[in-house]
Amino acid sequence: MIQPLTEGKRFTLVPGSEGLIETQKLEVSIGPQHPSTHGVFRMDCMLDGETVIALKPVMGYLHRNHEQLAERMAWLGSMPYTDRLDYFNSMTNNWAYALAVEKLAGIKVPERADYVRVIMSELTRILNHSCVIGFMLQDLGAWGTPLLYAFREREKILDLFEAVSGSRMMCNYMRFGGVRVDMTAKDLAAAKEIVSRFPHFLDEFEQLLTTNEVLLARTQRIGILPKELAINASISGPMARASGMEYDIRKIDKYGVYGRFDFRVPVGDVGDVYDRYYVRVLEMRESIKILQQALRDIPAGPHIAPEVKLRNFKIPPGDGYGRIEAPKGELGFYLVSDEGGKQPYRYHVRPPSFINLTTLEDMCLGHKVADVVIILGSIDIVLGEVDR
Amino acid sequence: METLYQQLRSWFAHAPDSVLFWVSVAIPIIFVISVFPGIFAYTTLVERKALGRIQNRFGPNRVGRWGILQPIADGLKLLIKEDIVPRRADKLVHFLAPVIAVIPSILLFSVVPVGTGLVPVDLNIGILFAFAVSTASVLALFMGGWASRNKFSLLGAMRAVAQVVSYEVPMVLAAVAVVMAVGSLSTLRIARAQAGGVLNITNWFVFRPWGFVGFVLFTIGAMAESARTPFDIPEAESEIIAGYHTEYSGFKFALFQMGEYLASIAMAGITVTMFLGGYNGPGSGPGWIGGLISMFWFFAKLAFMIALNIWIRGTWPRVRVDQLMSFAWKMLLPMSIINIVAVGFWHYITIRPLAWIITTLWLALWFITLAKLAATEGVAPRTYRYAS
Amino acid sequence: MGFIGKGLFDGMVVTARNFVGSYFDKERLVTVQYPEERVQTPENSRTFPFLVYDDDKSPVDTMRCVACKICEVECPPQCIYIVMDRDEKGKPRQRPKVFDIDISVCMQCQICVEVCPFDAIKMDNDYEKSQYGRFDELVEHLPDLLKSNEYYNRIKPTEASAVDAKLKAEKEKKAKKAAPAAAAKPAAAPKTTAPAAPASTASKPAAAAPAAKITIPEDAPFTPEQRQWLSGFLSTIPAGAAPVTGAPAPPAPGAQTPAAGAPTGDWPWHDPALGMQQRLDLAKSASLADKLMAAMAQTDCHACGYDCRGYADAIAGGAEKDLSLCLPGEAETADMLKKLMEEAGKA
Question: How far apart are CA B156 and CA B235, in angstroms?
Fold first, then answer.
């Protein structure tokens, strides 16, 4: 009954039903103040009864001028600002920026620093995925129970971040050429403790959710993103993998020391909300594997390349693009350095949430209002990244 | 009430008739008005604390030890809040909606027997009265949604009406099964029919095959009637903020909440009466001691049903409105009709063991068939592959 | 073993397990009831900066900050405001008079701590800083920010003991370097530009310089700072000897050196906000000592043991051989100094 997607992005519900019953279309604005839009984000929906026939996302409520600010600060000065891009995962944002600068300036990172970076990044990934599932279920109406279980686990990881870098969320931990301070033996032991407890929590989480009939009915066959559209719209991250794209930057670029770890990349087939949820669960299990290997193999050594200066750090002119597999997708930084080289001439962030959001309308057409919120939850956006 | 009048007459033989009449009218009213809203208030507290414990946190525990004074604090806060009415709202309807939400819920308690012979009004048509009155509260939902002049509220109201109306039918038909077995519409007689048996327990209708199915159907119907999760779509917070009571503040909001909770408690009371044996339990019987014990058993079973409601609320996500409707019409309604046929079998097959076997087989086979027929295609747990 | 509704049933089992477990297992009831109970924050936890002083009896005198303004420059949201303390004659004392941190702007990024060359500013872990106003109440001034080294050792024992050890080692190194200079002191009486360490009071070449006191009169066409400097400079000329191009007095803290920090008429490059190239351009046609001075960080922080002018003069005069002492300038200054010296050597 639902026509396939045409170029005009408008379609009729039942062919030939116009004129049978006089109905009025309802224009509704979901947000910006809404419990479930994950931040200040607005969607202008055109509804026919309960079915969405057009949807326009409106972004920009959280624009904080991040890219412009970086142009007037030294290279190191915008590191704390990258924390606040995707304010949920600060470690991976820091790494992406540090990677871009290291590429541009040709700095080599010592091995131990790379291992520490991998550990922090994978811990961030598991905390992001568990909380995203929690948030999605909160939108689904499970009054906070999975969310609070996920937060319970996240607390342990945040305590580790605080012990290592000084701050729970805005870590400001990565530096050009390594990390700011080293992880002590106590921190490594705490990380091992977290990693050993996490599969148990994941099992309980799955028991609560994965075979739940209400969840299955609510999320399967909803918000299907076909693989061609995903490729054309440059979707990345778990969303792309759920649609069948076998693309994981950790396997392709092998940045850091990811080439040494043995882990698999789960791929979904249908590309609906349930696939995105389950691909994230499987990714969490793979992250645990990576963490176990990293914690076992971490070598001794310096934690930062000694030749990098903190102040008056200059980069020769040029441009470069550094990207990582952030938990939400491909997070990239495009930096241009000019003569003088103390500040970036151009600093651009490629935010995964923003790019992934462009397919929101295509995924939501034909579904009900309730589904729109679920689909938005499964895209996993953070407004700090979308609006920068 | 009549028995009370006669009882009082026998005690106070020289009191004037009219006084005794009004006293015997007043006593049940005072009983209902004081006990059941008190139960409502403390149910809100118990619900918050139980949900908190499920979610690994304390519930409210600041106001008084264990949060005992929390409902009083909440009520006081809502009383002193500013009463905001949207400017272009329909004022009369806006005012009347909460009132009409509460009155039927309180009226429902008049046919619930809380002890041996203790029912405020012994109506011959008790069950019919109960359903008639509970359906009247639908009007309040719609009035609330319409009078708020808010698209979201209207959506919520329409969903609420659809939901309540469609779950009325299987609920009533499940009750019809009980009425057929007992032969009377009076709640007192239904409760009395479940007395006897081992320890006054084994005669409960929930231990009969048709009674068990009826119990499940009725509980689901009752949860949908009073809009509890997983059927709390009318007030689905994550999609339409608060549905039909978005624009209500202060005491009107409290009245809506009271109407919803009282309806759920009253429906729980009627479930207990019809399926769980009412006030019957070990030690219950006529007389003072038996009466007190029977009251204890009634409230214990009521507490169990409320706890079941809270438990389910903390665990399952919400169903979508069209899935809810299809569940009611395609699964529950046929099942309730089949249940009626099963009661017929039970009644007319005089050899008990044969009746058990035939009834159980009939219900089980039809249940499996319906589940297979009504299952949405493609909804099942899946296995995932990994990228090469 | 999947019956219809098994997923729902499993969910109920999990919730029941958590509910019952919350009464027995600490793992399943993770609330910390603030403010009666508090979570012990780890040692490294950071909230807002504070300034360290060494001696309780005189916090203002023993604070480690010399108002070099490096943290002010490097702070990403620019939340620090520093004004150097000057005495009655306008000479700078190497400490701040005004040190404001606006904690409603501060990002708690810790970059000020990382770039401070003197271990003067460190991160506190006190998070209970809420006030009843949004503007002035949230600006922390110097008295609020000064906290003792004991406090620092208490909140961050590992870090503080490492800092203490480092400072002690530096002091000893400077004392060792000053000891041979003190031995050569009597022989270098007119050469009062001995690289005396600020902290070692043992070798105070000031006492060794028999200078006549010359004061420029008030109506001379000079600014107070210029008058100051000229007085001092001319006073160093003992009768008959050539004027020494260098600081006339030992550069102990609070020494009588010309005003620094603001670009003076004579030294237009003496501004820490200018870049290296700009400063060198401004000093293009000046003497070697001027060019050397322009290569430095212009903060007069005395990290090298002199103020900027003194250090430049010392290098030009040959008294100071170590070209890498300019801490704020770091390697950039050291390289430029080396280059200038090589060019001068060839010319």
Answer: 7
Tell me which chain B residues have a C-beta less than 8 angstroms from the C-beta of A211.
381
Instruction: For residue C150, give the CATH number of its domain.
Output: 3.30.70.3270
Residues C155 and C220 in one domain: no
Helix (H, G, I), strand (E, B) or coil at A348: strand
Q: What tokens does C165 get?
A: 């050890």
Cross-chain Cβ contact A370/B232 below 8 Å:
no
Quick check: is C344 in a domain? yes
d(CA A187, CA A118): 14
Q: Which of C167, C190, C215 is the last residue before a domain boundary?
A: C167
Q: How many domains does chain C have?
A: 2
Distance of CA A68 to the CA centre of its chain: 23
The verdict on a CB contact (< 8 Å) between A80 and C15 is no
Q: Are residues C161 and C211 both part of a single domain? A: no
Do residues C211 and C332 both lie within one domain? Answer: yes
- Print the domain residue range for C115: 49-167
Residues 6+ apart with CB under 8 A from B102: B255, B258, B259, B262
Find all residues with CB under 8 Å of A269, minimum gap 6, and list them.
A244, A275, B382, B384, B385
Q: Are residues C211 and C316 in the same domain?
A: yes
Q: Answer yes or no: do C220 and C328 share one domain.
A: yes
Same domain, C163 and C221: no
User: C110, C143, C167 — which closes off a domain?
Assistant: C167
Closest by CA to A225, choosing from A368, A48, A354, A379, is: A379
| Tokens found for residue B281 | 């339990």
Q: How far apart are CA A299 and CA A112, in angstroms?
A: 6
d(CA B144, CA B157): 7
Tokens of B381: 């747990």
CA distance A185 to chain C (A): 14
Q: Which residues of A touch B153 (CB under 8 A)?
A: none
Residue B146 in tokens: 């319409």
Q: Is the residue at C8 inside a domain? A: no
Same domain membership, residue C218 and residue C163: no
Q: Is the peptide bond before C190 cis (omega within 30 degrees of 0)?
A: no
User: Is the same domain home to C151 and C94?
Assistant: yes
C346 in any annotated domain:
yes
Q: What is the pTM of this model?
A: 0.80
- Cα separation values, B272 from B200, B225, B303, B335, Å: 14, 16, 10, 21
pLDDT tens digits for chain C (347 residues)? Answer: 356 777 788 888 888 888 888 888 777 888 888 888 888 888 888 989 999 988 888 888 888 888 888 888 889 999 999 888 887 877 777 788 889 999 899 989 889 998 888 888 999 888 888 889 888 888 988 888 888 888 999 999 988 889 999 989 988 888 887 776 665 555 444 444 433 333 333 333 333 344 455 666 766 677 766 777 777 667 666 554 444 444 343 333 333 333 334 444 566 677 655 667 777 777 777 777 777 777 776 766 665 656 677 777 777 777 777 776 676 665 667 788 788 788 777 65
CB-CB contact of B263 with B225 (8 Å): yes
**Which strand (E) or helix (H) includes residue A326?**
strand A318-326
Compute the nearest-CA separation of C63 from chain B (Å): 45
Q: C196-204: long-range contacts (C-beta < 8 A, 24 or more apart)? A: C196/C250, C196/C251, C196/C252, C196/C305, C197/C305, C198/C251, C198/C252, C198/C253, C198/C302, C198/C305, C199/C171, C199/C174, C199/C175, C200/C174, C200/C175, C201/C252, C202/C175, C202/C178, C203/C178, C203/C179, C204/C250, C204/C252
Tokens of A382: 């953070």
Q: Is C40 on the interface with A (CB under 8 A)?
A: no
Residue with tokens 């299952």: B375
Closest-CA distance, A377 to chain B, in angstroms, reads: 11
Would strands A51-58 and A42-48 be described as parallel, antiparallel, or unpaired? antiparallel
Hey, are the CB atoms on C7 and A210 less than 8 Å from each other?
yes
Q: Is residue C39 part of a domain?
A: no
Q: Cβ(A46)–Cβ(A52) under 8 Å?
A: yes
